[in-house]
Amino acid sequence: MSKGLNVVKNVGMTVLFIVALYMTWTTLSQVPVNELIGVENGQTEDTGIASPIHSDLGVLAKKTVPKIETASASMGETVTALEQEINWSEYPVETVTATGYTANEESTGKNPGDPAYGITYSGVPVHRNIYSTIAADPSFFPLGTVLFIPGYGYGVVADTGSAIQGAKIDLYFDTTDQVYNEWGKKDVEVYIVQKGNGEISEADLAALNDRGVHAAGL
């Protein structure tokens, strides 16, 4: 009988020891054991961005986006990571003159309350995110074209402008201060990620940003 009790006691001590190891590991590393096992088994997170902008535009090339570790990571950090981690030499490049604009009167002649305020030529509301709305000459970059602009990020052509002709683009920013402090006017080489077919919808842009945010870990 005493031998049986000893066996039970030993098993109980072993279980307690394993639980203690588990609690120590999760407290120090903040990585659940099941996630650790997943890594050891070669399971990795799919971080590719691949999304059709429009049914006949095809699928964007699948590229790895480095995971941003904090939810408060800035747009600048995300853009820098994209510049460093993706091999942009694989994409066609075009040199353009890039300026910045806002939805406000100084850029568009419209004010809040105007039905057309903040609405691009395509009908998509202006947007600054991983994929932002930009303006271009549609004969040069058709609506729906996705560019990567170093220092700015992904731009989706959704707008036009009377002064935006030929090799010129206009990048959307939320405020005038951002236009002057973050951009101004510069000549820059942009990478053509996907050439558009002349259409872009709000749903298309939202789908791109949903996948972009997930891939960046934001």
Automatic annotation (TrEMBL):
GO terms for cellular component: outer membrane. Residues 132-193 form the 3D domain. Coiled coil: none annotated. Keywords: Membrane, Signal, Transmembrane, Transmembrane helix. Signal peptide: none annotated. GO terms for biological process: peptidoglycan turnover. The keyword Kinase does not apply. One of its GO terms (molecular function) is hydrolase activity, hydrolyzing O-glycosyl compounds. PANTHER family: CELL WALL-BINDING PROTEIN YOCH, RESUSCITATION-PROMOTING FACTOR RPFB. This is 3D domain-containing protein. It comes from Salicibibacter kimchii.
